[in-house]
């Protein structure tokens, strides 16, 4: 099963957390592209061994037949065994064979969106996540430029009308506090996969 010491990835939809939407007026937040892929978590245990999990399950690197899986391929591609012990990186796997590849990518890629310190039981802030990803060469979810102010429901829906680099409508945006204390998603109503 997914490890109990790391929270699962699942952002609430903005309509279910109206109190969080009010936080936007404070300005201490950022928005990122919500990539339509497979949610993944990677961490290194105290013995230096890399672990990889899907949204609900920790996964073996190879099956009994010797076949690998996309979760582990992405973790190995980006050398996630270099993650410092105590930190769990959460990211989306995107590309061929993942959710129909709506981004039209040629290769399997990762898009990091959060970093959880399981020793201290807290999410790390945006700057810490950015620095850790930069040091390890792991791509982050694309940041969406937006004004740091309060948004109406209609304005939030408009903000979510992003497009992937291939021109197709994107799934939407995730809005997260700079210190990662809260987050929610806004789905693009034009998105079709």
Feature tags:
globular, alpha+beta, 6-stranded antiparallel sheet, 4 helices, 193 residues
List the helices and strands and how they pair.
Layout lengths: L17 H4 L7 E5 L4 E7 L5 E4 L4 E2 L10 H8 L9 E8 L14 E9 L4 E2 L2 H11 L6 E2 L8 H7 L12 E6 L5 E5 L6
Antiparallel strand pairs: 1-8, 1-9, 2-3, 2-5, 3-4, 5-6, 6-7, 9-10
Descriptive report:
- With 193 residues, this protein is of the alpha+beta class.
- The chain has 4 helices and 10 strands; from the N terminus they run αββββαβββαβαββ.
- It has helices at residues 18-21, 70-77, 126-136, 153-159; strands at residues 29-33, 38-44, 50-53, 58-59, 87-94, 109-117, 122-123, 143-144, 172-177, 183-187.
- The strands form 2 sheets. The chain has a 6-stranded antiparallel β-sheet, with helices on one face. It has a 4-stranded antiparallel β-sheet with strand order 8-1-9-10, with helices on one face.
Mean pLDDT: 94
Secondary structure: helix percent: 10-25%
By helix and strand content, what is the structural category? alpha+beta
Radius of gyration: 17 Å
Number of helices: 4
Largest sheet: 6 strands, antiparallel
The strands making up the biggest β-sheet line up spatially as 4-3-2-5-6-7
Strand percentage lies at 25-35%
Instruction: Tell me the span between the first and last alpha carbons.
Output: 29 Å
Q: Unreliable segments (pLDDT under 50, ≥5 consecutive)?
A: none
Number-wise, the strands total 10
Q: Tell me the series of helices and strands, N- to C-terminal.
A: HEEEEHEEEHEHEE
**Which descriptor suits the 3D outline?**
globular
């Amino acid at each position: 099963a997914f490890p109990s010491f790391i929270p699962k990835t699942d952002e609430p939809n903005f309509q279910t957390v109206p109190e969080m939407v009010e936080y936007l007026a404070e300005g201490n937040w950022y928005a990122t592209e919500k990539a339509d892929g497979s949610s993944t978590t990677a961490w290194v245990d105290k013995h230096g061994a890399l672990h990889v999990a899907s949204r609900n399950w920790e996964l073996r690197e190879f099956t009994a037949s010797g076949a690998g899986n996309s979760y582990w391929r992405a973790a190995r591609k980006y050398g996630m065994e270099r993650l410092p012990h105590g930190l769990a990186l959460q990211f989306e796997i995107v590309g061929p064979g993942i959710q129909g590849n709506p981004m039209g990518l040629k290769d399997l890629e990762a898009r990091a969106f959060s970093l959880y310190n399981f020793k201290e039981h807290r999410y790390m802030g945006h700057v810490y996540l950015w620095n850790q990803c930069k040091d390890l060469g792991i791509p982050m979810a694309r940041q969406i430029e937006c004004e740091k102010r309060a948004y109406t429901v209609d304005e939030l829906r408009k903000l979510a009308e992003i497009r992937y680099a291939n021109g197709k409508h994107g799934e939407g945006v995730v809005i997260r506090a700079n210190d990662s204390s809260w987050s929610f998603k806004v789905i693009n109503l034009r998105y079709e996969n």
